[in-house]
């Protein structure tokens, strides 16, 4: 989502080169090799002694904070579902933990780091995509990126699209199973709202589809986080119609240009006044001036599923103070808008969407989120504004509009509960050059301060947070024995009452908690509660 910003201010990103520290001391137990020996070829197993180990491990560590975390005993890069089945069966048999990685974008690095000895299952080679325009659907494997999915859809049709996130290198596996906010969310909902089938390898090593896994498990993996329940190897998504031409604009206003007043108005019109076809997000950040002072800037970023004349008319009627003119607007195909939001310059070849390596240099990053049900008072907006100038660490704040169809989907339809009445979400980010580890604490503390300062103004009880902006500050499991009641504290923040249903489903499909991690759903047996 921050590409909405990074594109405006690429200077926030620094090129950092770090080398991996020494590899871990423990080693794979012999029975593991016996178990896998006739189940998959040796060249999909990367041990620390293999020259491929480092490059595979680092290939999708997008957050440099975790470059020196404890490393896996081995990495498995399956080409076939049977390899995934063997990986689950054999790690379970020898009592090792398994971490599942698709795109590696997890903000806390939980897909590739663990405090206990573990094996990393990296799905980067399971990434085929099959688009069926006649059926209005596509099968996409978890190791694909959303950029690859968008590309394949556009290759087949100029009037089909998919409503997922903005940044091309985000992986399908984590993104779909955690929800998936994007620029068409007001019209089509989350990525996870548009999934119609899936294939999962469960704890017993079976491959199940929607029918054989049942509606409960199928419900859970569409927003409840996949890694608590199994390895989802593929998803069937419903394609959506997009017009042959869409319009985008980026318009920045400084404090001196009444940005605060515009922001205030924005809050009142996004939910009901603007049509579902219009996405209008705002990013707020402090811009350093040449004299060393800072000024604030609000960047209004928009995707409209229609032409610019129509867009201008809507803005003129509802938000004239924005001062939008035809010159601000660019008409383009939907796939070009995808590239625009993903930070590619106009004219860049569409093939770039398939680059699995990010065009932006990797940095350290930490993120958290809030949901807003009542427009912030001017006081609250000023607070948000001041945070940006006061903080040394130039945070980036993104206001992501909900409304539209998000208001019409019930809270229990999928695990993501923040639907009706949520006007927008706030995504806070700090990005830093972490060549020296000492600086990290300052930045992370800065993010914590921001969240604390905003407490009076945001949704409470629970203080909501979006699973895909994962942050361990909201709470975590103490270990595989952590109970539902202990985990409720953080679980309710992501899932509200859906947390209980997730825990019951977890109890049904993985009672022994093999698929455990710091924010996995703990198993709950329904009778426990009686
Ligand atoms: C640059 C950037 C831009 C982003 N933009 C957006 C955005 O626009 N909208 C949005 O909603 N989010 C966005 N995100 C957040 C993103 O959606 C989440 O980080 C998501 O979990 C990433 O999925 P992944 O497969 O890349 O991550 P991974 O790190 O591979 O996985 C994330 C989590 O999912 C689990 N998992 C991964 N694959 C599977 C699988 N196949 N089966 C079971 N469990 C699995 C992992 O174990 C881990 O717990 C962005 C993140 C980054 C870094
Ligand atoms: C790693 O090394 C082992 C032993 O030399 C070899 O059998 C295996 O194929 C190597 N793996 C890869 C991915 O090259
Ligand atoms: C920069 O900040 C200083 C201290 O707040 C102030 O005195 C000065 O006028 C500012 N300069 C500009 C150009 O705004």
From TrEMBL:
Q: Name one Pfam family in it.
A: BBE
Which stretch is the leader sequence? 1-26
> What are the FAD-binding PCMH-type domain coordinates in residue numbering?
68-242
Essential cofactor(s): FAD
Q: Supply one GO molecular-function term.
A: FAD binding
Q: What stretch or stretches form a coiled coil here?
A: none
| PROSITE patterns to which the protein is assigned, alphabetical | FAD_PCMH
Q: In which pathway does it act?
A: Alkaloid biosynthesis
* InterPro entries for this protein: BBE, FAD-bd_PCMH, FAD-bd_PCMH-like_sf, FAD-bd_PCMH_sub1, FAD-bd_PCMH_sub2, Oxid_FAD_bind_N
Q: Which UniProt keywords apply?
A: Alkaloid metabolism, FAD, Flavoprotein, Glycoprotein, Signal
Q: Which domain of life is it from?
A: Eukaryota
**Family assignment?**
Belongs to the oxygen-dependent FAD-linked oxidoreductase family.
* Protein name per Swiss-Prot or TrEMBL: O-acetylstemmadenine oxidase
Which organism is this protein's natural source?
A: Vinca minor (Common periwinkle)
